[in-house]
Design goal:
By secondary structure, the chain is mostly helical. The protein has 24 helices and seven strands. The protein starts with a helix and ends in an 8-residue tail after the last strand.
Amino acid sequence: MNRQRLPLLLIAVIVIGGSYFRFVDLDRDHFNGDELDHYYAAQSLASGQGPLLPSGNAYIRGIDVTRLVSLTLESGDSAEASARLPSAVFGIMNLIIFAAVAWLMAGAWPAVWATLLLAIYPEAIVQSRMTRFYTYQLNFGLLALFTGWRALSTTGERASPSRANLVSSYLWAAATVLLLALAARVQVTTYSIVLGWAACVALAGLADLIARGRKAWRDSFSMQVTTLLVGGPLILIVGFPGAIRQNLASSQFVPAWSGVGHPLAYYYRLSELFPLMISLLPVAFLAAVLRNARLGVYLAIWFSVPILIHSLLLPWKGERYILLALPAVFLLTGMAAASCWGALNRWLTGAAASAPRLPLRIRRWGPPVGLATIAAFALITQHAFNEARRIPAIPKPINWRAAGAILEGVPGHENIPVGTSIALPAMYYWERADFVVGTDFLEAPSSTSFQKRLLQEGASDWYGGIPVLVRPSAIRSRFASAGEVIIGIDSDRWHWNNIDAELREALTREAEELCKGRCGDFLLFHWRLDNSQPRS
């Protein structure tokens, strides 16, 4: 028990530090459009009207989080902090669940290292500080990592399992399927984890076949489930070819605001955040396998299959999409770090003991102090830690209030139509938006989250319910009587060409940019529609 006190204490410190990263100044960043989807739907839920956006359309993605937000909206003075509270709580639950799961799977010290990596992972912090559903999804994924391992932890043994062990494997597998189904209900990227676990099951079945021969067909859980995994897709392909084609097409969908990501995007980002972990990953895998061969292989497959799928097969990239895969590589790294720590401790202790001229105090405390110094240096030199301690900003750091103050300084602004590249933040912070200029908002969600239908220019924005006008001619025609407009555009959409090329040219040539760097990643144009000459 005494040996477990120190790692337990360290995990408590890590969870407290990780909680600080996830909770401090939750109201620091303004809402982005994705968060306001939940905010407005939660407001509508609280009033008894269902999860409706200002447009009147129902928003049901991450509906459980939206329901929780509807309960926390009045919990504080800041709407941003109140709406983000559920995600932050789930983010802390991520750390606690992962620490317990890692401890049960690999032991105390691997759990310390693995929990530390998740605690400082910037994307996990960002998602905990947003009104979104990825930390909620991750809780199911972490539990599935554990139950999936328990279902396969006795594979490859020569002796046939008892009936009780076989039944136990099926029960753990059923729990894994249920947990992955709950995670997939939140976000469909869970399917890449499903394929990763399916690969683990297939490999475990092969290990049973090698160990027990033909008997494995009768007494191997993995062999029996692998047969189902092979037969099930064949039935789907033969029986439902149209659904298969539709889902394959959906997997290749990329929204207009995103663009196709580079196949090495995840490698580049993880290498930037954790250069030591990524550069030593092959060594870490070998060390983990030497520590526990089955578990090391299981974790490597759980991580690598989704990463390969998202890197090579799915064009739409985003760190949040691989959030369920990363705990496996964190735990694998934790196993390797624990083994290296133990080996270094034994070497330093032996070296100190063989130097009798050194004072007893140095021989006793030198090894642990030296190891603690090495660990601290390894931590503080990782970019992930330095990004985490600065509390990473929510994507699109736009100062909507600063832009609103500048807008209100325009003479006669009350009568000037206001456009924006995204409606909901303008409607929230400025309490007005008359039209949307982003071409991507001509893509309206249909019955599925990945398939979109194209709207005609002038149709209502699916989210805000205001007209989408993307061309200069449409804006001039609609607001000719006003003679001028103000248009706010986030710089991402400006640079990613989600703004019509003619409109960009017209604004650059004819309009005055008002923010001049004072609004974060935002441009605010005052455009007199009859002005065809460049502004001085």
